[in-house]
């Protein structure tokens, strides 16, 4: 995630870090060159059929409708991913507090919270599909990572601790509910990670965008002349740029510049649980060149 | 569901798998041919009444409004269906953990979870209206499938196990709440499956789409000439294509290419419950030619 | 509610059942005749002031904004009504299961569920403002229906059974929470039934629609000539049709073709509760000429 | 709140009760007169600069965006206010039922419910900022109304009754949760009442509306001539009317014609609680000339 | 937050307090001057390429789409922030009432609520990133503020009081759930404060806005002449103004004029808790020149 103050005018216009421009430049250039070629042919070789801009109005409305929908859907996925992780942070803190209240034995509490930290890292690895070697050795063992579903394995181990350490029905209920709440947020994250936006939208949107950018020169040449490629470039920047942004936001757990900072949030949880584990508090992660991983 | 990486340019333009194009091609062709016929008549036989594109602007806005609404409503149904199944996955895992904590007897636990797996398959069969022979014999018996509502039958059987096996009030409360939570997600799925989008919208939208595609040549012929059928083809592709996509998404439990992968999610639940049932973990389902059933 | 497969092309264009066309035909005809009259006067009697279509663009945007808002609000009311009834179905099933777990005496359980079925029918009668004679005699007595608020009366009677039959605090808590959850869904339905969309919107929308349809001929006559009444007819169909549809959807508990099938849902609940009451399972309601009441 | 059947054509066009027209007439007249003046000057005195309607297209889109946003936000506040009161109605009924189940002593129950009715009236007075003399003497004493926050005072008194009268932990938990749920709905209502829509939107919207209505004659005069003031009047009616409607809906607890019927809802609660208090059931409030207070 | 009655006509047009105009004036002036310069060059020096307004239609739609999305997202953040604080207010009041019911010892109760007030102030300081010297000394000690995360520290201290003072499992469950609910709202606020809207949107929106304002003179000059800078000024006011407003609303916990009144809400909580702490009730905060901090 890019963490940056409100940009000034110069930054806005020339900032590259965090912008999609570098990624889409070839496609924008291609579309612009195509438009310029059409204008050149029209002026020098052979008069092409012209049309006014009216048919493009509805075309543009449809395109806006598609992109508006996709943008909302992608941002909702991103924001829901963040909400679920926010819930996980709160649940982890509350698990530690519930343990203070309901689990009398200090060693049991430490075991439970250690497993919880293992869970959150296993969950992060699972969402980002990272290899086992990316796992922090102090929280996750080799054996954990070889099970079919490591985050569930850790939650099952936490369940065993609760079954053994809870002194009465109240404690069992409180801790079982907390683990259930964590499992619900976990399943929510997995839902977002495994269920992309329907593929058919990608086809519809990209096809419509390219058709639009390829045909609009016929509607603009008459009045805009050599300004035509400029307009086409801007529209390609807007439409292809937005399509690209939504592609990143729709996968909020990826390691892209617009992905959620899972590493930093795992660290936040470690900081919150440190006093309950009688451990030194680690330092929060800092953004590196505006990027927080 | 189609599982596919972000498509490249060529795939985007020529991909057929997962596209609605094959399904709507006859209708698009018909509308395009009609437009071409009008242009031919206009140029060679008899001058038809022409109009400029202005009246179509509002027409197009209304059409966008309808399609935008329908698209949002359909996608919401699809995504809510997925959310409910995500909740079922989480509830199934939590049921297994609750059983570990609250049910002392191992055989009772196994009975409960076996019934739960029967429930989830009966629920899947019910949502997809599959015949009994599609039922997995190890989880569902002939007798189960002959009851008036097999998923409810399985939940009732689970209730009997809980009533008999729960050692105290805490256990009864915890397991009854979990079954209630499963029943709520089940009823949500049945709501989506049995309550289509109001039929009147289908009529309004399809009628408006065909009227629009049939009339717009009168507005374009003047300026676009023989480009008219091209524009009509594109608009028909966009509007009929979107109408078709929303039709599929509005029935998220169907076995269409855009339906939800219920088989794969049932398998995910089997994988999650395997360690609690001391069973070998089955392999996750894989997409077959990008399609996950 | 209309239950119908995806309509074919012919059905789409000529279907009357479920369409709003018959209802709005007089108004559409009136507006169209007015437009035809204007064109006739303009061509034969006296040249009327003409204007181009530009001022209607913003007009149309405003109209779309109103209709889009109203459409969303109406559909949300309809879908929320369905959600609340889905929740009632789930709660009724869970009440039966909770009773199996928490109420030891079979006769008490039967009493509780009989009252629950009385509640759901009283709730249906109340929402649809049906007379007492529409009440099913096996679930609702004359006396019940004479109380100031029959659904609340039945819930109060259920409360008395719980207070008398629950053996311990766990049972009291579980059943009281279930009744509270039912009461919440009930109050939600009553909210929708008693609080219409703000009246002022009806005025704004209908006035704007008629002004628009009455003025647009002045903007179209120049270019569209005798096609003007055709366009006006289509726009009147779209705008008045949508206003009419939203009127029906905004009252989801009415007995209109787009109302929710409360009778069928009450039957679904009876089917679900039959095994718990040791009664024969009734048959589900079927749609009659595509209409499910 | 206006309670009225679907209006007929005549009512729609000439209804004044519930319409915003009387309130905005001076402003609409002023804007219209200004436009008429411009046309007169243009035709008779001095040719003003003309422009076509194109620049107003985007202007109009921006205005629609503002008004659409504000309309949605205002209606959401209104509907959320109604939802919270619906929840209060359900919670009050459930409180009465919980008391039947968990509080063994009839006098304690009566005390609790009497305080609850005091709370709901104190809450209503607080939301509407009514003076003490508007308080119903049978539910609220002078002393109650002199405390810093009367609704909280009543909830605190209810808490004291619960602390004294609950026979066991189950009862304490059930009643404390119910009071907490009531307090949550109360805080939600206070949130809506004390936090208006950001003031800056009012400025942006009103300024844009007046600028638009003041400038659009320059774009219409050319083609619309003396129809210009008619169009301006209609647009002013739509835009100022909508701004005014949203102003009322954004304050849902006010005593305006579009405000929520808090008096009637308090009466609904009194009706629901009467049988639990062994009191005669009061009559429901009726709309007075279509207005329900 | 600006607290002000519905503004009159004069206030609307000339109000500065609460308006974004002063902040964006330089940028609006710059864009306007650029447009005026272009018109001057076009008329006096060298005829620039002209285009009609059609290409700007789609451009404007895209811009509206961006701004509409951003406006909704920013307002949602602001309103969600307010909802979370409303929930905190309700939870604080309910915590005090739960303590009355479940904690028998008065000193324990006072300790718990004193810590709770410390939490809410620490939470406010944390959200606003205020220095320690801004902390109210009666609720927060030096030591508290030196811990890695002061709000969590206070919640941990509250947990310790609960673990020590709760007499039975019911009390432990009730108070642990309340603290968990507070922690959830706290994490929600921290989510909003630490996760800005994706940076890439800022780039896309600002770049598109400036490109639009810089290019639109070429489309307007032909018909609008010297009215061009007027239109450009208005559009710049609308688009840059909205971008600025959303920037403020997207950071709801800042101390801007549109930020949420955290100070006033902390005071509301102090007022609500005063009777439970047997303390004199403080006066509510008042707006200072319409501004409530």
UniProtKB/TrEMBL annotation, chains A, B, C, D, E:
Q: Which UniProt keywords are present, listed alphabetically?
A: Cell membrane, Ion transport, Membrane, Transmembrane, Transmembrane helix, Transport
Is Transmembrane helix found in the keyword set? yes
GO molecular function per UniProt: chloride channel activity
What name appears for this protein in its UniProt entry? Bestrophin
- The residues that cross the membrane are 20-41, 53-69, 199-220, 226-243
Q: What is its main location?
A: membrane
Q: Name one GO cellular component term.
A: plasma membrane
What family is this protein classified in? Belongs to the anion channel-forming bestrophin (TC 1.A.46) family.
UniProt cross-references to InterPro entries, sorted A to Z: YneE/VCCN1/2-like
Organism, as annotated: Pelagivirga sediminicola
**Which is a Pfam family this sequence falls into?**
Bestrophin_2
- Entry's localization field: Cell membrane
Give the taxonomic lineage as stored in the record.
Bacteria, Pseudomonadati, Pseudomonadota, Alphaproteobacteria, Rhodobacterales
Q: How does it sit in the membrane?
A: Multi-pass membrane protein
Do the record's keywords include Membrane?
Answer: yes
